[in-house]
Write a structure and sequence with these properties.
single chain, alpha/beta, UDP-N-acetylmuramoyl-L-alanine:D-glutamate ligase, Protein-Tyrosine Phosphatase, Chain A, 2 domains, six-stranded mixed sheet, 15 helices, globular
């Protein structure tokens, strides 16, 4: 084995390929074919700008409630790389990952001794597929990393594809319009296979690609949807409906649209993966996903949210508005420099009383000066600069009062640093 520890494998992978992101399927497909594994159960791929993680979590929770053996691949991770690959709600072990990485490493080399170069994400995706292919599973759920058409996950022909929402993000790779980004996300469609779109106002490119490739498209609001009731909700899809459903355990009214999309996917797979009403209810009631309006309770609740673009920040702001508490709201935020920083901060302006800005110790992070400039341009004056998330939280603990709230957002890295501080 090339390395004996997971940390050594990951450190090596980070410098293996000339660029961090190199969209394309040829290299990954070649290595996957050499691995000689296959997924022999229903596969669901989940793409989208926002909502992917929530949809994956709901799908997995519902199928686990029914007793199905699940394989789930997500990215990025928050605290441990192992979070990315779970089977039956258990993270794979370091040993299993090291053995999978070794198999992928061997499969990179052809008969002439020429090794195929892989990015960090591609290496991990292949390891996940290798582990799932060697396990006995009933359903595999794969979260698409970036875009769709050229993402490594897209080497797999899914039985059902789900596109959650389309928004402006990753413009350097996907384009700077919803139409262009929608076309990239729609690349996970397959001829004669169903695709579910949860976006209530999808770009026209979604329907156009479905028509071009012959995929059966199911649109939220047209072919299925959610009807909120007082404390429950109703799902409808064609001639079928599910009544008296519990609100998803994930906070935010927008989660109903995610849940409706998820139930459409389960409906399309009902012949192969039957579900009862109690399975659906149990899954929705017990679903959890880290870092999506995750509340750590106490006299001063701590809210962790990976929101990092205008749409996800608006969802965060709306959820905070709907959570009535008499105290002040303090924000701790650090973002990546390549994001729409102003657009992601603006929705929180009418919710946050005091801002604490910092930076993450990595090259992609926006500097404190950049963050301060963006907030000042938005008319914010209550700004405090901090050397780290940990320092910001330590200072806030000295000044907050009961019923105040502290909101940490801006990136996965920001939330991960907060999690380490509070030992989540």
């Amino acid at each position: 084995m090339r390395f004996n520890t997971l940390d050594d494998w990951l450190a090596w992978q980070e410098g293996l390929h000339p660029s961090e992101i190199d969209l394309g399927l040829d290299r990954v497909r070649t290595v996957y074919e050499r691995l000689g594994v296959a997924l022999d159960c229903p596969v669901i791929t989940v793409a989208g700008t926002n909502g992917k993680g929530s949809c994956v979590a709901m799908l997995a929770a519902i199928y686990r409630a029914a007793g199905y053996r699940t394989g789930v691949y997500t990215s990025p991770h928050l605290l441990r790389y192992n979070e990315r690959i779970c089977m039956n709600d258990e993270e794979v072990t370091d040993q299993a990952l090291c053995e999978a990485f070794e198999r992928v490493d061997r499969a990179r080399t052809d008969s002439a001794g020429v090794a195929t170069s892989l990015t960090y994400f591609e290496f991990g995706t292949l390891a996940a597929l290798d582990l799932f292919g060697r396990a006995t599973l009933d359903v595999v759920i794969l979260e698409v990393g970036l875009g769709g058409r050229l993402d490594a996950v897209n080497i797999i022909d899914a039985d059902v594809a789900l596109i959650a929402t389309i928004a402006i993000d990753h413009v350097a790779w996907l384009g700077n319009s919803r139409e262009a980004i929608g076309r990239e996300k729609a690349g996970i469609m397959r001829p004669d296979h169903p695709v579910v779109c949860g976006d209530l106002n999808p770009p026209q490119s979604i329907a156009a690609v479905a028509l071009e490739c012959g995929a059966a498209l199911y649109l939220n609001g047209r072919d299925f949807g959610a009807r909120p009731q007082v404390t429950q909700w109703r799902w409808w899809g064609g001639q079928r409906q599910r009544d008296a459903l519990p609100m998803p355990a994930l906070r935010g009214s927008f989660q109903l649209n995610n849940a409706a999309s998820v139930l459409m996917v389960t409906e399309l797979l009902m012949a192969r993966l039957p579900l009862s009403q109690s399975h659906v209810r149990e899954g929705l009631a017990n679903v959890k996903v880290a870092g999506r309006f995750e509340v750590i309770g106490g006299e001063v609740p701590l809210v962790l949210d990976v929101a990092h673009n205008p749409e996800s920040a608006q969802a965060l702001a709306d959820t905070l508005k709907g959570w009535s508490m008499p105290g002040r709201v303090y924000a701790v935020v650090a973002m990546m420099a390549d994001k729409d920083i102003s657009g992601a901060l603006r929705p929180l302006l009418e919710v946050v009383d005091e801002w604490h800005i910092t930076a993450i110790d990595m090259a992609r992070s926006a500097t404190v000066a950049q963050m301060q400039q963006q907030l000042q341009a938005l008319g914010v004056t209550a700004i405090h600069t901090e050397p780290s998330v940990a320092t910001a939280l330590e200072k806030l603990r000295q000044v907050v009062q009961p019923h105040d709230r502290i909101v940490i957002f801006g990136s996965f890295y920001t939330v991960a640093e907060a999690m380490r501080v509070v030992h989540v």
